[in-house]
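Sample pair:
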Amino acid sequence: MYKLILVDDEEDVREGVVREVDWEAIGFEVVDKAENGREALEMVERLQPDVVVTDIQMPFMNGLQFAEAIRERFPTIKIIILTGHDEFEYAQKAIKLHIDEYVLKPFSAQELINTLLKVKAQIQEEVAHRENVQLLKEHYRKSMPVLKEIFLAALMNRKLPRDEVLDKAANYGIQLDGNSFVVAVISIDGVLIHEDDLENRSELATSVSLKYSEDQALKYFALLNITEEIADKRRLGLVFMHNDQVVVLATHETGDRGAALQETMKVLEEVRQNVEKYLKFSVTVGIGAVMKDVTKVSYSYEDAVLALDYRLILGNNRVICIDDVEKRNVEKIRFDDLKEHALTRCIKVGTNPEIKETIDELFHGVEAGVSVKDYQIYLLEILTCILKAAKDSNLNVDEVFGENFIPFTEINKFTSLEEAKHWLVELCVKMMTHIATDRQYTYKNLVDMAKDYTKSHYHEGDITINKVCSHLHISAGYFSSIFKKETKMTFVNYLNHIRMEAAKELLRTTDMKALEIAEKVGYSDANYFSFSFRKNVGVSPKEYRNSSKGV
């Protein structure tokens, strides 16, 4: 069902239209009715309808002014104009505003139904176009190489959640089955021409630079081809370009780290020799540590890049394995970006049970074979993340944790992992409590400032939510949500409430005319003031004054 708002200043027309059309049968629901454009605009903002049917000639804000306001704020809403005027200027303005349809008065129910069905077809066509599965599939197919490249780059750059890795690998047709994973980075040897060397030789510099770039691109293309060919033949794994270097993600069925590493080194040595023999240039290969978990291949990539740096010491045209240059007894534990993001998010917006679960997850698997030094460094990284979150939230550390809090000395006092975890959970819970309190105070403070500003400026006809937000230096979307949360009403309703209360006070205590009172409380149109007063208070301003004096 599509939501529709009906706007016409004649009650007979509104009620007649509602009564004579079988709305459900044609797929529409009349969610509200209004008798002028100003009232209707408030409804549109609140209800976000699919279609608005509006008369042109109405008091306070005519149909074209109303349509213009809708087009500016809600461009997807369909607008049907009801009018008895077919004059040139109206048609011209309607065309400029991109009115979807119009119906000339007087009209029959069937004429309106036909117009509504046309608009409904337009909406469905637009929806179908956006949701056309075949078009999406074709676009997806064409985008697949780019999507695969983005995914593999993300896999190299950071630790991704397991579900995301497996789902995307399946979607992109990437084979990531295995019990051991190793990343290697292959870099072409050679000295790059530095821009400074070509300074003051603009024409020559440009031609040499372009030729050099083209030569390098061709070399890497050839390297990529020969690596793919050998990796496919040896069933080693994926080969792709990342950061202008050829990257190999080797997958192995065996869970034996040594066997997986030896097989990877063997194939990449074959690549190195073939490049030297057939392509006539040399490459250096950096090989990272073996990972048991596919979500941790970014660590292996990081190690492979690090291994490449050792060519400065060991020389070019060779395969360098990180395990050979940096001896490690066990796989390193790492506090990566994903862990940091999860902990920071939980501290700022999580719950107490969530923080305990997050800390438990950070230490999952840490117990097995981790050296004391690595374990202490890991604790320091977690603690640094917590203190950074405190700084980002403008918390006073002494106020939160006490004046004698010296966090980095506490780490040496723990005799068990459980003690450390319990201490970290306590730190986080204290921070979360302070952050929540500060946030609530900030919300209340902002709303109080907005109320004060509104009470001081309600008499100005141009006061809007945007003007208040500009004064408070916050976005309208953020303000709207916290204002409604704190006051249980929208800002527009609050402004109307303030104006009505002020109007009632003036009616009770002065002899001012309705026009004067309207201007005093922010209405430029006395008739619209009377209309709004009756709608909010239930009686006219005159009736209210008489009843208050009679008491």
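The mean pLDDT is 84.
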